[in-house]
Amino acid sequence: MSTILITGCSTGIGLHTALAFGRAGHKVAATMRDLAKAPGLARAADREHLAITVHKMDVDDEPSVKSAVGSIEQETVPIDVLVNNAGIERMGSVEELSMADFRCVMETNHLGAIRCIQAVMPAMRVRRSGCIINVASIAGHIAPSPQAAYSASKFALEALSECLAQEAKPFNIRVGIVEPGIIDTPMAQRIGNLQGASHYPQRNRMAALFASVLKTPTLPSVVADKILEVASSDTWQLRHPVGPGAVPFLTWCKSLTDEEWVDWGALDDDAWYARLKAEFGIDARSQA
Question: Which positions are catalytic?
Answer without folding.
Answer: 150
